[in-house]
Amino acid sequence: MARIVACYKWVIDESDIKVNPDLSINLQNSKGKISDYDKNAIEAAVNAAELLEGKPVGLTFGNSKCKASLKDALSRGLEEAYFINSEKADKADGRVTAAALATAIQEMGEVDLVVCAEGASDTYARQTAPRLGACLDLPVISSVNSFTIEGKTLTAIRKLDDCLETVKVELPAIIAVLPEINHPPIPGLKAVMNAGKKKMVEFAEADLKVDLNPKNQVLDLQAYVMERKNIVFADGELTEQVKNLVIALKKEGVI
Amino acid sequence: MSDIYIYSERLDIAAELIGFARQNHKEPYVVTFSAVAAEELANLGANKVFYLKGESPLVENYAKQISKFLKEQAASHFMVGATARGRDLAARVAGYMDCGMASDLSGLTYVDDELICERIIYGGAVRQKEAFKDFCVVTVPGGLFEPVQGDCEIFTIDLKADERVVLVERTEIPSRGNDLPTASKVVCVGLGLAEEEDLSLVNGLVDVLEGEIACTRGIAEERHWLPVERYIGISGAVIKPELYIALGVSGQIQHVYGIRESKIIVAIDKNDKAPIFRYADYGIVGDMYEIIPLLTDLLN
Ligand SMILES: Cc1cc2nc3c(=O)[nH]c(=O)nc-3n(C[C@H](O)[C@H](O)[C@H](O)COP(=O)(O)OP(=O)(O)OC[C@H]3O[C@@H](n4cnc5c(N)ncnc54)[C@H](O)[C@@H]3O)c2cc1C
Ligand SMILES: Nc1ncnc2c1ncn2[C@@H]1O[C@H](COP(=O)(O)O)[C@@H](O)[C@H]1O
User: Fold this and answer.
1) ipTM, 2 dp
2) What confidence tens digit (pLDDT) does each residue in A54-110 have?
3) Which B residues in the span 40-69 are in contact with A, Cβ-Cβ below 8 Å?
4) Neighbours of A221 (CB within 10 A)
5) Which CATH superfamily is domain B180-299 in?
6) A218 part of contact set with chain B, CB < 8 Å
7) Full strand arrangement of the beta sheet holding A217-223
8) Per-residue pLDDT at A25 exceeds 80
9) Overall pTM surpassing 0.90 (yes/no)
10) Which of A162, A212, A229 best tests the B interface by mutation, with the highest count of B CBs <10 A?
11) Domain locations in chain B as residue ranges
């Protein structure tokens, strides 16, 4: 049975990022999560697999902590999870990521469709799907707002800055979906229980035979901070609070 | 290492990138897929304009051939306007070139012939600086550089497209009159708004302030209650008003990215733990359905 691959990234939750006094950042206590829009990619892959009568699988490239994501991903309707386990993922650029994912996809056998999200919530580079297309020399459709499949023909509606485009492709192909494409449900208890029993495949760095060294050299990371007054009007009735707000805005000279 | 190749279907961005190249004493070359655009681009200070002529109406379909062309020309960088189409084309070219790429730059400079790129990561929380030594591809939004002028020749080159993806239909999205980017007062509504009809309540406040209405991504892209050019954030508009008022906006970093340069930020949300209060100068914790009428009346 041909596979439909959802690529998802295990990312640091940006709301956990701590800022040091010198504006350097501290990621030590940050928790991981499946990148927000990748949940839409997983849901789209599950839907596409139904239409194609194929098997929806997940694929992720991350460090050893990323293992925690496999059950979560599998509880969202995927049947198998593939994990490329490498500490090099932490410093990966778009080239490394696409090369790693492409090699794993080639290992899977017959693949009809690869689904990525528009962009990952950490990098938001919006590079991976088109680059993956180049690595695998497969056709790519980005900015997909909706799609239908008939036989092996996928028809997609793309949403670009100034137009809507209907385009058509014969599978296999790669698509990058916008988050508006679907509303992924929260996995039920049964799905969560079952997830642990599903097939998980791990690739080690050495299995891949790709150069995982990035082309870019990161020079500096600096937190963006914003100084604000943080005054909340809490005294008195609501009418009083609104009055105080208006007085403050008048004083600021903005109304 | 000084030939910069430039593409953007947004001619204003192409013009700015030519300006960037000139300002840094590099040689700008422009590629375009439109004969009409080629004429315009030929007055903007580039060395040459290459009109790439082929059968496919989808420019992304030329990525593989463009990467061959760039190799033949010994280009040192490929700089592309950061539009949805530009990003896609750029990333494919980077893929075929097997080179580095940095997307959606907020800053770009040369230091000793190394390209130093600045971009925003983690939804707006962190600025990252990175350097590229070799050929690389970057995408750049509008507004960073000054255009220049100067005439050049147009060369036509036939290019074969990858025709596996076929265009069936294209519908332009009409751009509506939109004063949001320059408005001095902006009222932004988030998913705290229960019904589309309730927009009239918000519009009442917008009217007394003589401001403009804006929204979060979900209001525009999922609920379609306001046009997409009205949503603010890292994937939407970035604004710098004197006064920005958030109504039922939780204040996720991706949204806040678009309002950071506002002079005064006001938050109204019923959840006292909503992150928007951390980014606000003034706030009231409460139901916007009660607060909006009170505020509108007082301002009237
Ligand atoms: C890669 C990426 C890019 C993104 N880009 C953008 C972007 O450009 N722009 C953008 O906006 N988002 C963007 N997002 C989404 C963003 O993360 C948030 O999900 C989104 O901004 C939340 O919108 P919201 O505040 O309207 O909704 P919610 O987070 O649902 O917040 C609604 C708020 O309304 C309050 N509320 C409810 N009822 C009432 C009431 N009666 N009175 C007062 N308050 C009430 C709630 O307490 C809550 O705080 C992006 C996300 C990702 C991952
Ligand atoms: N390390 C990764 N593992 C699996 N999928 C990824 C990885 N990085 C990126 N992707 C996929 O590519 C999309 C776009 O990522 P980016 O190009 O980094 O914005 C993500 O939303 C995922 O679908």
Assistant:
1) 0.96
2) 999 999 999 999 999 999 999 999 999 999 999 999 999 999 999 999 999 999 999
3) 58, 60, 63-64
4) 16
5) TPP-binding domain (3.40.50.1220)
6) yes
7) A217-223, B126-132, B114-121, B107-111
8) yes
9) yes
10) A162
11) 3-158, 180-299
